[in-house]
Amino acid sequence: MYKKILTAVNEHLNSEVTAKYAVNLARITGAKLYLCFVAEQEMTAATISRAEEAIKRIFLEAGKTGIEIEALTETGDPVRKIGEIVRREEIDIVFASTRREDIERRFFAGTVARRLSINLPCSVALVRIAHTGRMRPKEILIPLKARIDHIEERVYFTAKIAQAFGSEVFIFHSPEAVSKFFHGEIHLTPIEWEEKLPKDITDFVGHLRRYDIAHAGRSVPGSIGRMITIEAFSKRHDLIIMGASQRSMLSSILRGNPVEEVLRNTPCDLIILKPRYEG
Questions:
Q1: Which CATH superfamily is domain 131-269 in?
Q2: Which long-range contacts (CB under 8 A, 24 or more apart) does 190-197 make?
Q3: Which of 31, 82, 140, 221 is deepest in the core (most CB within 10 A)?
Q4: CATH class of the domain whose range is 1-129
Q5: Is it the case that residue 255 has pLDDT exceeding 90?
Q6: For the chain, give me the number of helices (H) and strands (E)?
Q7: 104 near 94, Cβ under 8 Å?
Q8: CB-side exposure of 152: number of CA atoms within 13 Å?
């Protein structure tokens, strides 16, 4: 599915660590890897130099894996330039690290991360690095909602990341509390929740089995974003992979945005996947 992978590199350490996820995905899938640095107009010579040094380090390290690599340097607006490269080279997925502004601004408003996720015609993996020194995730938490789009690509991405690091996958579903009118909230046992798993989650698990990935899971009702964070913290998961939220701005204001909540509070690395491919 992924034949060409691009990772955006800048002067920040987070982008260099993010690139390692892209390198390992390229290695396990046999894809060509593009390292891309876009120098913005206001950047100083020192900043550009740090980014170029990062490109060199990643290039040399990735070269040891035997994958095909190409390094690209552009000048201008990062989103526009990356978009041009994606279309010209027919890139399948772009990795980009989140910045401090992505965490501070609500709904990622005006950030590079949000613009990449919205504007690129390929899949996008936005990566929040929580621990720069921990780069071999052994347990990956996969939060799933009742309705899942692009199931096959989500499973493929999850399986390949797990294969690349020899990880186990833990599937987690946090449905909203069940209630009946006039009777208050109903509490179900974990087994009863498991029996009520939505079809899309059952399909996800079915596709995952084809890749022979060790996996387990459970379902716990509660506030979605909060429950994901608690689960990751209490079980000491190393990485969370979750889908980009499709909620409208109004819905996010009224009900909250689980992705935004996890992005701010995650105790481990987080990959927010915006898939584009079906089948």
A1: HUPs (3.40.50.620)
A2: 190/218, 190/219, 190/220, 193/218, 193/219, 193/220, 193/221, 194/218, 194/219, 197/173
A3: 82
A4: alpha beta
A5: no
A6: 11, 12
A7: no
A8: 6
C-alpha 67/C-alpha 234 separation (Å) is: 37
The CA distance from 28 to 101, in Å, is 32
Name the 3-class secondary structure at 6: strand
Interior angle at CA 163, CA 13 and CA 159, nearest 5? 95
Q: Reduce the DSSP state of residue 185 to 3 states and report it.
A: strand
Q: How is residue 255 written in tokens?
A: 């009900």
Same fold, 1-129 and 131-269: yes
| Residue 257: pLDDT band with limits 50, 70, 90 | confident
Q: Determine the residue type at 186.
A: I
Q: Who's near 63: CB < 8 A, 6+ residues apart?
A: 69
Of the candidates 271, 29, 269, which has an alpha carbon nearest to the alpha carbon of residue 156?
29
DSSP SS3 for 174: coil
The residues spanned by each domain of the chain are 1-129, 131-269
User: What six digits make up the tokens of 70?
Assistant: 């190409």
In one-letter notation, the amino acid at residue 147 is R
pLDDT (0 to 100) of residue 253? 34
Q: What residue has token string 């060199």?
A: 56
